[in-house]
Design a protein that fits this description.
2 domains, Dehydroquinate synthase-like, alpha domain, single chain, binds glycine, 7-stranded mixed beta sheet, alpha/beta, Rossmann fold
Length: 375
């Protein structure tokens, strides 16, 4: 392993997540799906549970057969359910169809759902698990970078509603997260870059050392070197774990994870989800970093580093087809508005963020105009 790729932190193989007032759960970063039955043993309660593996039409083609093969024989009954791939299917109609499948398959409170896929599959499966018979257990098997480092951890589940992103949902913790970073090799470049948007965000808001590590290891990340990916994923998970353990229900600190999301969600919605989530988040990160620079929190040099380094990870830093006024208007309709006040996450410095409720329309418009590509 080259010098600059050496592990800079020691990390355990299994990552325990404590849940206040609950039993907590374990995240297992593995190298294959081989240990899935072993890791699920406790959940399967001596084979007395039914299992439904929920996946989407893309991931299902790649990994469903393998995962079903691993679980076969270790549970009372094994079924699968495939959701059509894409954010446009993250809605209550699809959840309804999944409920029908569960009812017809005789699922009850002892049974368990397995989410095999990216953030949309994890959020939807978690939401179905949170609400079916007032709550059943579910396991996350994230197969995208974004779902490994972000959405599979912390118990946020839900669906979009009338193009309002994640407007309907519930907090429902998984009983286990099993991730196999080898699945990142089948991820297309856009989805990989989208996950990098959340990875870099974790460094920017909590850990400048991790952010710099990502920049230093850019080559290994781009090549998807297994050791580099594993360390990157595990370190990102440790940042997310620290935040969600302290503030599971987003009463305070957890909102920092929404860095870049206020503008990002508005852009995502106005672009009709044609840009990937992490790509939109990166546009929001650049806008929020611009405001942080203009307020004197970070230097001009750091602002340009944040903006330009993200390009190297395949992320967009400009948009051209939208109007800044429309983005602002859409931001004001987002659920991150608290009592009519716009809430933005800004940087205090590299590696540290805070919640700000004083950002004016003019500051936001200036930032949105700055990142608009004028040709
Ligand atoms: N993705 C942000 C959070 O889990 O709070």
């Amino acid at each position: 392993m080259p010098e600059n790729r050496k592990k800079t932190v020691s990390y355990e193989d299994a990552i325990e997540v404590k849940v206040r007032g609950g039993t907590g759960y374990t995240i297992y970063p593995e190298d294959s799906f081989a240990d899935l039955p072993l890791r699920m043993e406790e959940d399967l309660q001596s084979s007395s549970s039914r299992v439904c593996v929920v996946t989407d039409s893309n991931v299902g083609k790649l990994y469903l057969e393998e995962v079903m093969g691993k679980l076969q024989g270790s549970c009372k009954e094994l079924t699968s359910y495939t959701i059509p791939a894409g954010e446009e299917h993250k809605n209550l109609d699809e959840i309804r169809s999944l409920y029908v499948h569960l009812i017809e398959s005789g699922f009850d409170r002892r049974d368990i759902l397995v989410a095999l896929g990216g953030g949309v599959t994890g959020d939807m499966t978690g939401f179905a698990a949170a609400t079916y018979m007032r709550g059943i257990r579910f396991v996350q098997i994230p197969t995208t970078l974004l779902s490994m480092v972000d959405s599979s951890i912390g118990g946020k589940t839900g669906v979009d509603f009338d193009s309002y992103k994640n407007m309907v949902g519930a907090f429902h913790q998984p009983s286990m997260v099993y991730l196999n970073p080898n699945t990142l090799h089948t991820l297309d470049d856009v989805q990989f870059a989208s996950g990098m948007g959340e990875v870099l965000k974790h460094g920017l808001i909590r850990d400048s050392g991790y952010y710099e590590w990502c920049l230093d290891n850019m080559g290994g990340i781009e090549e998807r070197d297994n050791d580099v990916l594993r360390e990157m994923v595990v370190r990102s998970i440790l940042i997310k774990r620290a935040v969600v353990q302290r503030d599971p229900f987003e009463k305070g600190e957890r909102a920092l994870l929404n860095f870049g999301h206020t503008a990002g969600h508005a852009i995502e919605k106005l672009m009709n989800f044609s840009l990937a989530h992490g790509e939109c988040v990166n546009l929001g990160v650049v806008a929020a970093s611009y405001i942080s620079w203009k307020r004197g929190n970070i230097s001009e040099e750091i602002f340009y580093e944040i903006r330009d380094m993200s390009v190297a990870f395949g992320l967009p830093i400009t948009y051209d087809s939208l109007n800044p006024e429309n983005i602002l208007e859409t931001m004001k309709k987002d659920k991150k508005m608290i009592g009519g006040t716009m809430r933005m996450i800004l940087l205090k410095r590299l590696g540290s963020a805070y919640i700000d409720e004083t950002v004016s329309d003019d500051e936001i418009l200036e930032a949105l105009r700055f990142i608009r590509y004028e040709g």
